[in-house]
Amino acid sequence: MFLATTNKSKRLLYIGFIQQVRTKDLQRGLEEMPALLADLPPGFHFLVDLGRLESMEPACSTQIGKVMELCDQHGVGLVVRVIPDPAKDIGPNILSIFHYPHRPRAVTCETMSEAARLLSL
User: Fold this and answer.
1) Quick check: 16 and 52 in contact, CB under 8 A?
2) Torsion sign across C-alpha atoms 43, 103, 32, 89
3) Which residues constitute the domain of residue 101?
4) Whole-Å CA distances, 44 to 48, 49, 62, 76
5) What's the pLDDT score for residue 70?
6) pLDDT value for 49
7) Higher pLDDT among residues 25 and 41, named by residue
């Protein structure tokens, strides 16, 4: 499952990966992204939560790359990733090289509490 939402006043895009994530889940989420990003100003923060992820189809990397590219095109300023279990690391650093040409600042946190402090939530 894939959840995407925004908090306009916090200039925040949140994406959560929950349990088993399949390519079709991300494809549906990708269709929502332009509308979500339209509400955010350049320099927005992007919070990616992998804390509830159990598994992900390898083909999902294509859709994740497209999400990154859309965020980059809309001027993402800070990417905060919550990855509590290194085994769940889906390779965001490698994907970032190819899909974030403008190189936003990126930080990886172990907990959502750490990410919330970093983002002043």
Assistant:
1) yes
2) negative
3) 2-118
4) 13, 16, 23, 5
5) 92
6) 94
7) 41
- How many folded domains does the chain comprise? 1
pLDDT in tens, 85-110: 766 555 555 555 455 667 788 899 99
9: phi > 0 → left, psi -120 to 50 → alpha, else beta; which?
Answer: alpha
> 31: which 2 tokens?
């269709």
What one-character DSSP code corresponds to residue 85? S
> Are the beta carbons of 88 and 50 closer than 8 angstroms?
yes
First-to-last alpha carbon distance for the chain, in angstroms, is 24
Strands 12-21 and 2-7: antiparallel
Mind giving me the DSSP string for 18-48? EEEE-HHHHHHHHHHHHHHHHTS-TT-EEEE
The alpha carbon dihedral of 61, 67, 70, 74 has a sign of negative
76/27 Cα distance (integer angstroms): 21
| CATH number of the domain enclosing 92 | 3.30.750.24
How far is C-alpha 26 from the geometric centre of its chain's CA atoms? 11
